[in-house]
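Hello,

Our lab assistant flagged a job as stuck in the queue for most of the afternoon. It eventually completed. Since we weren't sure the result was trustworthy after the delay, we are filing this so someone can double-check. Below is the sequence as submitted and the structure that was eventually returned. Let us know if re-running is recommended.
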Amino acid sequence: LFLPNSMAIDNQGNLFLGLLRIIYKVNLQTGIINIFAGNDTAGFSGDGGLATAAMIEGVRYLETDGEGNLFFSDTNRIRVVTTDGNINTFVGNGSTDFFGNNISALEAGIITIDGLSVTPIDQLVFVDNNSGNVLRAVQTNRATLTGTPSQTDVGSNAISLTVSNGVESANQSF
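-- returned structure --
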């Protein structure tokens, strides 16, 4: 494994290592390493199919949720590998144009992803670097971009984000 650039551990104790165009899964109990996603070809393809057959442009951040799904940044998108081994785009349309407040997450434009995390209430939160950092959030069980500051908030010292899954909610000011 040459130059991994990201990692995540799921609740089953598996380690995921992101390299440029491949994600490896390491079973920490047995030490067995398998390709989990990517065919080592630069590009974008494979949505709806097996993750191991997909083209990936560039893995940078990895994160797992409570269901065992793996989310990762892939250039101007966030993609997900579900527990059945299939890959799909979860957020982003591939565009570098900033737009997408309270719309389908698949319609949103993303400039550069500079970190992502899944909250305890399964909210995917990520930083979209749009000439300043903008915090954006998507519910993992409903792919709708919510709680998003407007573009005019970029560079502001007071950003507030409220995330909700319909049952619980949390508010954080930055």
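-- support follow-up --
The delay was a queue issue, not a problem with the job. The result is valid. Residues 143-169 have pLDDT under 50 and may be disordered. The two ends are 37 Å apart (CA to CA).
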